[in-house]
Specification:
Blueprint: E1 3-8, E2 16-19, E3 30-35, E4 38-44, E5 49-50, H1 53-56, E6 63-66, H2 69-96, E7 101-107, E8 113-119, H3 127-137, E9 140-145, H4 148-155, H5 166-169, H6 179-184, H7 191-194, H8 209-215, E10 224-228, E11 231-239, E12 244-248, E13 254-258, E14 262-270
Parallel strand pairs: 8-9
Antiparallel strand pairs: 1-2, 1-4, 1-5, 3-4, 3-6, 7-8, 10-11, 10-14, 11-12, 12-13
Length: 273
């Protein structure tokens, strides 16, 4: 029976499905596999399982073999080459005065290609830079411009929550994030407080937004005049997660009440704050 296994090439990377072949694999095993870029080393991240009907119809790359000691030595050499490539490329960027931010270099397992990742505000003429890189390393060179969110995903870091940023640990794709999500959750709209390391709105704003959107359906709008068992007043604060809101009475006093204590809500009148 044909079996498949999921393999990751990076700890935070996307898992890819490969054909096990005749190998008996376990989670954590390092293996050499065939990829579109040639051979590569990956780590088994899920137990082998029988291929489903959809996968059987799809041609899959196979696990070439289990990794041996010389493969780990090759990996160390690649790491050294990546570091050398980064330092050399950065020096050439400064010498040529190119407006680009180099942040990572990746080497294929067989050392036949170096990929340089960078960010830039616009298009960059790096033809001379590539010529210098080819002369220095005598290998195939690829320059890849990515967005600032992808930079954060590749480089990683610690978020304001004290944990590793989501995109570098488990997020597989970037969902659209809007300022409306921050407003919906009653968060400060100060950009420094709701932005991640990439400078864009934090991805985690999307996690609780569906819950807030649902719970706010049962909450009176800000500025509405509401009659409750605790009295009548204008809504000045809401807490959807607790199902509570605060009203300000005519005498200026404030009272926190539950949505279950609403007697009447003026659907048309909205008092200016």
């Amino acid at each position: 029976m044909r079996k498949t296994v999921e393999i990751k090439f990076k700890p935070d990377g996307k898992p890819y499905v490969f054909d096990c072949g005749a190998f008996v694999l376990e989670v954590g095993d390092h293996v050499i596999v065939e990829t579109e870029q040639g051979f590569g080393m990956g780590v088994v991240c899920s137990p082998p399982k029988p291929a489903n009907k959809e996968i059987i119809k799809t041609p899959l790359k196979k696990v070439h073999r289990k990794a041996v000691d010389k493969d780990f030595l090759q990996l160390e050499e690649n790491t050294t080459l990546e570091k050398k490539g980064f330092e050399f490329c950065q020096a050439q960027i400064e010498d040529l005065g190119l407006e680009m931010n180099l942040f990572s270099v990746e080497c294929t397992f067989d050392s036949r290609k170096l990929t340089f990742f960078y960010t830039a505000d616009g298009r960059v003429d790096f033809r001379e830079l590539v010529k210098r890189l080819v002369r220095e390393f005598r290998t195939k060179i690829e320059m890849r411009q990515v967005g600032i969110r992808n930079q954060a995903k590749i480089t990683g870091g610690i978020g304001r929550c004290g944990r590793e940023i989501c995109c570098a640990s488990f997020l597989k794709k970037f969902d659209p994030i809007s300022i409306k999500m921050a407003k919906n959750q009653g968060l400060s709209l100060n950009p420094t407080k709701i932005s991640g390391l990439c400078g864009r709105l934090m991805c985690c704003l999307a996690y609780e937004d569906p819950s807030y959107s649902y719970l706010k359906k049962f909450m009176p709008d800000m500025g509405k005049r509401v009659k409750t068992t605790a009295g009548e007043g204008k809504v000045v604060e809401t807490n959807p997660l607790r199902g509570m809101f605060t009203i300000q009475k005519e005498d200026g006093s404030r009272v926190e009440v539950s949505v279950n204590d609403i007697v009447y809500t003026d659907k048309t009148e909205k008092v200016d704050s």
